[in-house]
């Protein structure tokens, strides 16, 4: 088994080389369609406001692709040059409303803890969970408080826009010693204020609000849904520290979301999340090729689109059966 793992790691590592041509091309195919869609919304709004609102759906989906570019830059995998990754990541952060350095460092902590039952971030609604035993040990009131923000309506529809539009404006969960990350928040806010302030002066606050707020609502809901199912799905793997393996956590605890090719393009190939966790230096535009290269060596169970739609209801890890379950599958005695 160790030999097989070594072969798989070496195979994936061979794709951990940024390609300047592909990176530049993806910048054009990410920012280009997104900016064109934004321009279309501005042109349509004075004539047909409802049509402009409808266009927020494809425009928000295109913004997800821009966020994946920022995500790769945070891992220093999009370009070979660290300087280029930082510059592009900061540019992305202005349109995604997500402070580049602060988000990247917070996200790096996730890559040290994923699917480890003894190293869970308690505030993480989307890639961590309680075990059934821990949930049953709570009082009824604490169980209700735990369940409320994790209801799919709240966790996947209401909270995502609030996180991106409001919470990311403040470094509330950033340690004081993270000076660079604090600056990232304030500088991103300043850039957002300057750009949107100019737009308000040009076309008015109402039009700017009714165009960009729906875009962020759509993008944040889609993005958070994709993030939530990367580690919480029916066939996932969680383990205690003594049994936790980074290889198994990557290949079994991180999803291969088997989407149609056009949706892989739209989501920046983030559905090949098992490859990303196996080697974070593989740029998103090479994840698919890395996945195909290891398929003869290791079979990864795909997550279907229907499975992805069911994933938000999977909220508790049952150590007895080794699977994620829904709240309604658990009936504590004191409930």
From TrEMBL:
This is Omega-6 fatty acid desaturase (Delta-12 desaturase). GO terms for molecular function: oxidoreductase activity, acting on paired donors, with oxidation of a pair of donors resulting in the reduction of molecular oxygen to two molecules of water. The chain crosses the membrane at residues 24-44, 50-68, 80-101, 153-172, 184-203, 209-227. It comes from Enhydrobacter aerosaccus. InterPro entries: FA_desaturase_dom, Fatty_acid_desaturase. One of its GO terms (biological process) is lipid metabolic process. Keywords: Membrane, Transmembrane, Transmembrane helix. The keyword Transmembrane helix applies. GO terms for cellular component: membrane. The keyword Transport does not apply. It comes from the Bacteria. Pfam families: FA_desaturase (PF00487). Residues 53-299 form the Fatty acid desaturase domain.
């Amino acid at each position: 088994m160790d030999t097989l793992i070594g072969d798989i790691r070496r195979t994936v590592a061979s794709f951990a080389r940024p390609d300047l041509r592909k990176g530049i091309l993806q910048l054009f195919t990410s920012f280009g369609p997104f900016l064109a869609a934004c321009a279309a919304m501005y042109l349509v709004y004075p004539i047909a406001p409802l049509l402009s609102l409808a266009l927020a759906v494809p425009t928000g989906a295109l913004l997800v692709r821009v966020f994946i570019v920022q995500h790769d830059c945070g891992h220093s995998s999009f370009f070979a040059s660290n300087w280029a990754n930082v510059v592009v990541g900061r540019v992305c952060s202005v349109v995604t409303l997500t402070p580049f350095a602060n988000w990247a460092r917070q996200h790096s902590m996730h890559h040290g803890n994923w699917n480890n039952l003894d190293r869970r971030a308690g505030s993480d609604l989307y890639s961590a969970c309680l075990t059934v035993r821990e949930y049953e040990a709570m009082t009824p009131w604490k169980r209700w408080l735990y369940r409320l923000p994790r209801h799919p309506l709240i966790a996947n529809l209401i909270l995502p826009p609030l996180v991106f539009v409001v919470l990311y404006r403040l470094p509330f969960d950033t340690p004081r010693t993270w000076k660079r990350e604090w600056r990232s928040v304030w500088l991103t806010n300043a850039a957002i204020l300057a750009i949107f302030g100019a737009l308000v002066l040009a076309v008015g606050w109402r039009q700017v609000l009714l165009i960009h707020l729906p875009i962020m609502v759509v993008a944040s809901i889609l993005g958070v849904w994709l993030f939530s199912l990367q580690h919480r799905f029916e066939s996932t793997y969680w383990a205690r520290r003594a049994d936790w393996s980074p290889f198994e956590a990557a290949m079994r605890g991180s999803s291969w979301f088997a989407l149609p090719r056009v949706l892989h393009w739209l989501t920046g190939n983030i559905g090949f999340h098992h490859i990303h966790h196996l080697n974070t230096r593989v740029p998103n535009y090479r994840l698919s090729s890395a996945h195909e290269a290891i398929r003869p060596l290791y079979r990864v169970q795909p997550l279907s689109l229907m499975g992805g739609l069911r994933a938000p209801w999977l909220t508790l890890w049952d150590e007895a059966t080794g699977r994620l379950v829904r709240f309604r599958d658990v009936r504590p005695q004191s409930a």
